[in-house]
Amino acid sequence: MPYEVVGSRCCGFISYDTDVYFSNLKPMDFSLNSWVEASGELRVFPLSDSFYEFESSLVYQACESVFLQGGCWEDTEYFKKILKKIEGGRVLWNCQNRDDLVRRFYVDIQGIYDSMKLNGFLLQEEIISEKKPHERMLGVWNKGSGERHRLSKRHEVQIGIGQSGKVLFFDGRHRLAIAKILKIGKIPVDCIVVHNEMVDRLADLGFCKSV
Question: How many C-beta atoms surround the C-beta of residue 60 within 10 A?
């Protein structure tokens, strides 16, 4: 797919009630292995895209079931889908077996929820510097869960802006789902992809170039 790198990523905020959509765009469309590699740059693409609402995704429905309805992760379709991939030989979030995955959800994801409920949605920079330390949350990042190395100023929730101005989700699904469930009004995001017809409107949408 043709695209153009036009500079550094744009930073901004969305809210829990912002309509967010999963897109059919993939990292490989931009010569990337993962969306994390896109951090720091803004890419422009010319093609129309299809999407579906974030709230209709398995990850959001799983978080809703666990955090709002008191359900178990193992009973969600999301957990079952991820487990099937791991049992098929894939390593996801450093999880190589069911026990790893259970720990991922009941320790790591629970820790994110607990921290966000207490502190709001912390910037990655705040977590790194521990300006607002929360014992449980910091413990999650420090205890070899495979997450600490991913902490950086460039690892906020990653989104894009589609042709019609829709917010497209790319990376940070657990954080975004939890923020929406907790009705957090200020969610920091990095815009890393924008439709060519929307480039000049980024500032109007509240996004500014990062430094």
Answer: 22
Handedness of CA 185, 187, 191, 195 (dihedral sign): negative
* pLDDT tens figures, 181-209: 999 999 999 898 888 888 888 887 877 76
Contact 99, 164 (CB under 8 A): no
Long-range CB contacts for residues 200-203, cutoff 8 Å, separation at least 24: 201/161, 201/165, 202/10, 202/161
DSSP string, 79-124: HHHHHHHHHTT--BTTB-SHHHHHHIIIIIIHHHHHHHHHH-S--H
pLDDT in tens, 93-138: 889 999 999 999 999 999 999 989 998 998 877 776 664 444 334 4
Contact residues for 133 (Cβ-Cβ < 8 A; gap 6+): none
Q: Which residues pair with 188 in a beta bridge?
A: 13
Distance CA 149, CA 81 (A): 26
CA 39 to chain centre: 12
SS (H, E, C) 128-157: HHCCCCCHHHHHHHHCCCCCHHHCCCCCCE
70 Cβ contact list (under 8 Å, min separation 6): none
136 and 112 Cβ atoms separated by less than 8 Å: no
Q: Which residues contact 199 (CB under 8 A, 6 or more apart)?
A: 6, 44
